[in-house]
Amino acid sequence: MNPSARTPLPKIPYDAERIGLKRIFESPTLSGFACRGIASKKIEQVYGALNFPEPPADRPYLFASMVLSLDGKIAFEDAPEGPLIAQTNLMDKDGAAADFWFLNALRASSDATMGFGGGFGRKKEDSVTAAMFGTDLESSGHIFDQDLEDDRIAAGRAPVPWQIITSLDGSEINFDHPFLNNHPLIPFMVTTGPTGLDRLRSRCKARYFVVDDPSRVPASIEGLGMPVIVTGEASMPDAAATMRILRKLGMKRVLIEGPSYCHHLIRQGLIDELFLNYSCLYVGGKALSLGGRSESFTSTKHPHTEMLSIHSHGPHFFYFRHKLIY
Q1: Are 167 and 196 in contact (CB under 8 A)?
Q2: CA geometry: angle 25, 141, 201, nearest 5 deg
Q3: What interhelical angle do 146-154 and 93-108 show, nearest 10?
Q4: pLDDT confidence of 293, banded at 50, 70, 90?
């Protein structure tokens, strides 16, 4: 699509005054982050400076964003929609709006968002966006704030960042979904293993091309269709090799939105930052936590973080930025 054109995708009006955040801590480390996410007066007004360091030479700079309850849960056991941890905070509805807005600010600052993975494209009539717009848009990954989309366009960037579906073997992907059929507004790609490629070849109706080696990335992908990145063996993709290919495709900053894939990348030592927003409500019990269904780190080997900044939206919502230290 024309990168200078606005998209007709659904938008949410955001009042910067109502969702504005107060910065209550900032690490000196941030002074060395010289790359602005995107030039945006609205980001400056709501959040302040949102800068990043230069990306590594061989992969994109990776950061993840999640909203957690105060006890670290990412969803309720009876209602697994992740956004509900923010949206059901009855003490601060504007704080919940700021949570989703900030995710959009990170999308606007990224070349791609990654990690939709399991269940992509399965119809969810009870999803949050279905309740808001009458249709499920939670896999669209587009920017819901028109001001932020306009900021991307003004910077010469595509209105919608690349949306990357990660899958072990492709079995959970609905290849009939319109997003995966060369959608004119939303650029999609798939990363998977060789088994997933076999399944994609038998099911995918979209025009696509395969990249399986960083040294064979085309100089231009214009008009080639949906990129399919294939690494690893059988149904186990190689995350590091995938990131090398993404860097060769020109991606400098990638936002990770899937909690399972986030934990997987942390185990690989690949995530650079975590943006964790805390909704001050308590869930407890067996509800899902970040990395809750994956292998744990041990008492003798685990990553640490440096706190880069803390913001608040009153006493019921806090927004933390962590730098991973492996």
Answers
A1: yes
A2: 135
A3: 20
A4: confident
* Secondary structure class of 132 (helix, strand, coil): helix
Q: Which candidate, 100, 103, 101, 186, places its Cα nearest to that of 140?
A: 186
Q: Report d(CA 252, CA 31) in Å as an integer.
A: 20
Which amino acid makes up residue 292? G
* % of residues, the chain, pLDDT over 70: 91
**Model confidence pLDDT, tens digit, residues 234-247:** 999 999 999 999 99
Tokens of 181: 């059929």
Scan for tokens 């996410």, then name that residue.
37
What is the rounded distance in angstroms from the CA atom of residue 43 to the CA atom of residue 16?
9
Which two tokens mark 255?
């936002």
What count of Cα atoms within 13 Å lies in the side-chain half-sphere of residue 240?
A: 4
β-strand pairing of 188-192 with 226-230 = parallel
**Looking at 145-252, which runs of residues are DSSP E strands?**
162-166, 188-192, 208-211, 226-230
Label the pairing between strands 304-312 and 22-26: antiparallel
Other Cβ atoms less than 10 A from the Cβ of 321: the count is 23
For 174-303, strand residue ranges (E) read: 188-192, 208-211, 226-230, 253-256, 273-279
| Distance between CA atoms of residues 42 and 49, nearest Å | 10
**Domains in the chain and their CATH numbers?**
16-325 (3.40.430.10)
